[in-house]
């Protein structure tokens, strides 16, 4: 990408999209195109087609998505599948028909089989059953990355896909029921500290293993790949490190400053037992994460405290 190339970041108000915009601006890119949901409904094919015909972006970062934690996914399976499928297909197809030079599609580690061999290589895709609690979202993301691959194979496009592990950081969603585990814990422990609650109850038994990547580190990788990588093969993005949900919970409580008891509701689902990505491909390309988890959680908590409106989402 040239510094004055026209770059469209879809989903620029979300955690990932806003991080990509920050990274592009940090590196001196000055022709960044964005649209809010009110300005452009990505689920509307006519609207998306008109936008691409008018703007003709040269590069596209597709970071827009309908996202949420276990409860949100479980309660809105059809919505998660439909909205993600529609917006992905609309943007990718319009990028192709309008002559976009390159597109980067952002997926999720939930695309991999529930019981995949750990750490999960990119090649384990579609080799086993998906985790039921986020199956709809995973199927939509798999369709997006496969559409990019098939366009490359059939029409010679240069569309690439990145599959990040669990993300966190500035501009996260802290909704009490619709957020992912780390921001949900930040909010829960902060509110418990403020109210003086004697205990906090968390879902499951705390045994699942998870990996977490600070979103600004992912953004740096995305810009790097847009400039340096071309292939049908997806790239995993993670740290290569994992910890149990129980360990994560204790770490968040410590950083937030909550001193009460942590209880576990084993009637609630744990989700996938283990999700660790094999990040050897990204390392071979010269990328490595920078932000350690403890430091990243501190930064995320500062963001939560400094953005009370965001915390209400």
Task: Walk me through the structure.
The structure is a single chain. 43% of the residues lie in helices and 15% in strands. The model has no long low-confidence stretch (mean pLDDT 93). The chain is of the alpha/beta class. The longest helix has 21 residues. The protein has eleven helices and 13 strands. The strands form four sheets. Strands 2-1-3-4-5-10 form a six-stranded parallel beta sheet, sandwiched between helices. Strands 11-8-13 form a three-stranded mixed beta sheet. It has a two-stranded parallel sheet with strand order 6-9.
Q: Which strand order does the major sheet show?
A: 2-1-3-4-5-10
Mean pLDDT level? 93
User: Terminal Cα separation, in Å?
Assistant: 34 Å
Number of helices: 11
Radius of gyration: 19 Å
Low-confidence residue ranges: none
How much of the sequence lies in strands comes to 5-15%
How many β-strand runs?
A: 13
Query: What structural class is derived from the secondary structure elements?
Result: alpha/beta
Helix-strand topology string: EHEHEHHEHEEHEEEHEEHEEHHH
Q: In terms of quaternary structure, what is this? A: single chain
Helix content: 40-55%
Shape: globular
Largest sheet: 6 strands, parallel
What is the strand and helix layout of this fold?
Blueprint: E1 7-10, H1 15-26, E2 32-33, H2 45-55, E3 59-62, H3 70-75, H4 77-97, E4 102-106, H5 135-155, E5 159-164, E6 166-168, H6 181-195, E7 199-203, E8 209-210, E9 212-214, H7 215-228, E10 235-237, E11 243-244, H8 245-256, E12 261-265, E13 274-275, H9 280-284, H10 293-306, H11 308-311
Helix pairs in contact: 1-7, 2-4, 4-5, 6-8, 6-10, 8-10
């Amino acid at each position: 990408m040239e510094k004055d190339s026209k770059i469209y970041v879809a989903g620029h108000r979300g955690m990932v999209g806003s991080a990509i915009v920050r990274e592009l601006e940090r590196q001196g890119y000055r022709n960044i195109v964005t649209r809010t949901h009110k300005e452009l409904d990505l689920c509307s094919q006519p609207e998306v087609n008109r936008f691409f015909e008018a703007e003709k972006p040269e590069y596209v970062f597709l970071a827009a998505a309908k996202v949420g934690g276990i409860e949100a996914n479980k309660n809105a399976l059809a919505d998660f599948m439909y909205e993600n499928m529609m917006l992905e297909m609309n943007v990718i197809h319009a990028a192709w028909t309008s002559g976009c030079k390159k597109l980067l599609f952002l997926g999720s580690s939930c695309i991999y089989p529930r019981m995949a061999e750990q750490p999960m290589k990119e090649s384990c895709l579609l080799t086993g059953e998906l985790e039921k609690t986020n199956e709809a979202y995973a199927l939509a993301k798999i369709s997006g990355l496969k559409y990019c691959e098939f366009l490359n194979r059939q029409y010679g496009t240069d569309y690439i896909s990145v599959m990040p592990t669990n993300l966190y950081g500035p501009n996260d969603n802290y909704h009490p029921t619709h957020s992912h585990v780390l921001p949900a814990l930040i909010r829960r422990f902060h509110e418990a500290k403020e109210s003086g609650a004697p205990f906090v109850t968390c879902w499951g038994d705390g045994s699942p293993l998870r990996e977490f990547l600070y979103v600004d580190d992912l953004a740096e990788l995305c810009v790097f790949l847009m400039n340096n990588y071309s292939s049908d093969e997806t790239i995993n993005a993670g740290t290569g490190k994992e910890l149990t949900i129980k360990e994560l919970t204790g770490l968040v409580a410590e950083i937030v400053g909550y001193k009460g008891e942590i209880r576990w509701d084993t009637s609630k689902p744990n989700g996938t037992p283990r999700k660790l990505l094999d990040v050897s491909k990204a390392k071979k390309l010269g990328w490595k994460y920078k932000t350690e988890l403890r430091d990243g959680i501190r930064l995320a908590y500062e963001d939560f405290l400094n953005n009370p409106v965001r915390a209400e989402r």
